[in-house]
Description:
By secondary structure, the protein is α/β, with parallel strands linked by helices. It has helices at 10-14, 24-37, 51-63, 77-87, 103-110, 114-131, 147-160, 176-189, 209-218, 240-249, 265-276, 297-305, 333-342, 349-365, 371-381, 426-437, 483-511, 513-516; strands at 2-3, 5-8, 41-45, 68-74, 93-100, 135-140, 164-169, 197-202, 223-226, 256-257, 390-398, 404-412, 415-423, 443-452, 461-469, 472-480. β14 (443-452) and β15 form a beta hairpin. It is globular and about 70 Å long. 3-methyl-2-oxobutanoic acid binds next to β6 and β7.
Amino acid sequence: MERVLVFDTTLRDGEQAPGCSMTPVEKMRMAKQLDTLGVDIIEAGFAASSPADFESVREIAREVRRPVIATLARATSGDIEKAAAALEPARQGRVHVFLATSEIHLQHKLRISQEECLERAGAAVEQAVRLVGEVEFSCEDATRTDLDFICQVVEVAVKAGARIINLPDTVGYAHPDEIRTMLATVRQRVPGIEDVVLSVHCHNDLGLAVANSLAGIAAGARQVEGTINGIGERAGNAALEEIVMAMRTRRDHFPYDTGIDTTEIYRTSRLLTVVTGIHPQPNKAIVGKNAFAHEAGIHQDGVLKHRMTYEIMTPESVGLQMSNLVLGKHSGRHALSQRYRALGYELTDEDLKRAYELFKRLADEKKDVLDEDLLAILHHGCMEDFPRRYKLRHLQVSCGSAAAVADVGMEVDGVMQEAMAEGDGPLAAAFAAVNRIASDHVIELHELTIQAISPGGDAVGEASLQATIDGKTFTGTAAAPDIVNAAVRAYLNALNKAAHARTLEAAALEQASYVWGV
Ligand code: KIV
Ligand code: ZN
């Protein structure tokens, strides 16, 4: 079967979305999971955008060896040099050069003529080919570009040596018929296009990103770009899991293979949720909480009689393997490790030790420990693999008809500190007490959500929040049976990321100085 390459841009286009920024450690964790998922290309970042992004692309290029590692670059020689330097340790690197081609972008954003656009495109691709070899060229805003002009730009880029041509629907404006026409025209008119991989990259402003991506594949695109959970600018990018499952479920329309191990989809989606704190909507196709839930009596009856009455794909095919198996306070370490293995996680001895400790604590508070709880233990308790400046040591909150009062004890760089504060409610009081201790940060909390991750009154609560800390946005997540505790831990998670980012930025600036000339 013909192959469609999957190009994941969760760490670049996805990460640009509000609240989705990730620390370098989180990006590395995601990149490794994307490798396990089987994507062909990981766009690891935009190397020229900051020293921290540069370092993060370089680290991923060094450590993640199977997929091609790409980095975005504007069509300028400075960007392309930085991209090439960041990709230098990669087994196989790719520079993804982009240049806007639509009249509105040329006139108002770049203020250049079509002739200058053609010149820049050719020069940039030539330079990137010279420095790295593998080059993808994107006509930004392709779907609002005059078709004759797209063909001219693509011809120049192909002549200059681009081997992948991407035609993005940057503003999510296109209709599937237009995508088909655009690809057919380029394939018909551009000399040498048969030696090039055509690619589509669709945004979701009109909710058509996946439909447009599939139209592109039907019209000859053999690379498709998107993000996990569809995160991205504005309404997001095309959700890769939806494209892949649509192709797999409707082979009659899409007789193509991908390298994706679909049973890794749910794990990848869940990891991204924990890392960003942004949950897919419950009814989101493939990975939403309700995507495989059958609530209506008639549906339940049908599924019990024959699954395919209301299920077009199985939850197992995307790696959703929740069972009714429960563990409790008498379950041992072996049972725990077996359960994690059944869920697809091979824990290191160290992670298992930590998971077991947390499991025992949870089992003391909660009679039945479900798979969802085990995943929360793993994601929130075992994966914080960066140094934590702040550690919660005790939390006492009293509230009622008067103002709430919180007493917080935290270790800061190994030294115990305590503070008390009042607030309108228990969370306001607890956050105010934390702010007193972490007073060298300027913190503005924007959003806080708390979700029960399993059924029942004794459910574990998962807190996700977004805060601006010292001028940058960070997310924090944590889980605990007590929701005030979960929220305070999520707050500390965001603070720890901010403290870690400060340290990393200083280090990245130092390491990248030879490229940046600072
Ligand atoms: O949406 C877009 O046009 C992009 C390009 C940079 C590929 O993200
Ligand atoms: Zn995009």
